[in-house]
Design a protein that fits this description.
A hairpin with a 4-residue loop joins strand 2 and strand 3. This protein is mainly β. It has two domains: 30 residues; 293 residues, Porin (Beta Barrel), CATH 2.40.160. The chain has three helices and 18 strands. Helix content is 9%, strand content 57%. Strands 2-3-4-5-6-7-8-11-12-14-15-16-17-18 form a 14-stranded antiparallel β-barrel.
């Protein structure tokens, strides 16, 4: 019965992926492993584009070019292809966050995507005392021993398919590189996602990030496993004919397999999580105004759609850490420029 719905080519891909994951787990038995290392994958939870960020970081059920980050099944909403780039200054410019993604429809059912994003903190001073064996004083003062940096990079390859008329499935394979001072780590993991459209103006989405756990191997010999997290979202759009406007409400709930305590909105046992809410008001499919809550932090933003271009801005507040600003630019095209039409 399964062969009625899944193409042979997709079956081969799933078999290959299963074998690869099995081999990956066999490798986990080697080395020192910290299972469930808290915050090891935090840089992969910081959002992706101006639209979703302005809507309270709601993206699990909201389609678009940045969909591969939020839910790999979402890129099936791309008609032809496109590219999106985003830059963010977080926490009053201390943290730099850059994101670029591209998606291309390969057939009536299949879409491929490639995403790269990097979080960086430069010019971190490492200090020391002139005489470490004596207390600090005017003569024994603190000086900058050397300057270092922190860099975290992820590369995602995405495959998504319209499995049935109202159901889409997707998978991310991701490579992670982290560098802190003189040490570095290399990691590998997978995300899976699905969307369901019972009606045209309503969409449900679900994703499991790090579904096989994401492995991080440090050059120190110490290894880490990032535990899975589960996200579910819903988005509903209302059209007002008289005003020629669309109003979209979105809500996401994220559950993590590691109890992060007060860092999340709620926690119970080994689990913790938080909620996200967003609103978008778009006039004549050109100008958009947005607002939301990323957990307890207020967000706002605006967007402009002109021909094949999208420009989006998002503002995020964070008590104690300063403000964050994001700007993203997207360009879309029809068809597949790499294939003969």
């Amino acid at each position: 019965m399964i062969q009625r719905y899944i193409p042979v080519s997709m079956s081969k891909r799933l078999i290959t992926l299963t074998v690869f994951i099995t081999l990956l787990f066999c490798g986990y038995a080697l080395g020192d492993i910290d299972i469930g290392a808290k915050f090891a994958g935090e840089f992969m939870t910081l959002g992706a584009d101006g639209r979703s960020s302005g809507m309270g970081e709601t993206g699990v059920a909201v389609g678009g070019l940045a969909g591969a980050y939020w839910n790999p099944a979402l890129i099936t909403s791309v008609d032809g292809g496109g590219v999106l780039a985003m830059h963010a200054d977080r926490f009053s410019g201390v943290v730099k966050y850059d994101f670029i993604t591209a998606a291309q429809r390969y057939s009536d059912r299949e879409v491929f995507g490639l995403t790269i994003f990097r979080l960086g903190i430069d010019d971190i001073p490492l200090t020391a005392l002139q005489d470490p064996n004596s207390p600090i004083s005017e003569e024994n003062y603190v000086y900058v021993r050397k300057w270092t940096s922190d860099s975290e990079l992820a590369i995602l390859g995405t495959y998504a398919i319209n499995w049935r008329e109202n159901v889409a499935l997707g998978v991310n394979g991701k490579i992670i590189n982290k560098s802190v001072g003189d040490n570095s780590a290399l990691g590998l993991g997978f995300d899976i996602g699905a969307t369901y459209n019972p009606v045209k103006s309503f969409q449900l989405g679900a994703r499991i990030s790090d579904v096989t756990t994401t492995f991080l191997g440090w050059d120190t010999g110490h290894n880490e496993l990032i535990l899975p997290s589960f996200g579910v979202g819903a988005a509903k759009t209302f059209h007002h004919k008289r005003l020629e406007a669309d109003v979209t409400f979105a809500v996401d709930m994220i559950i993590r397999g590691e109890n992060r305590g007060s860092a999340d909105q709620f926690d119970s046992g080994i689990l913790s999580g938080d909620a996200h809410f967003g609103l978008e008001y778009m006039v004549k499919k050109v100008l958009a105004l947005r607002a939301g809550f990323d957990r307890e932090h207020f967000t706002a933003g605006a967007g402009l759609h002109i021909m094949r271009f999208d420009v989006d801005y998002a503002y995020q507040s964070h008590e104690g850490l300063g403000e964050s600003h994001r700007v993203s630019l997207a360009y879309r095209w029809n068809g597949n420029p790499l294939k003969k039409q």
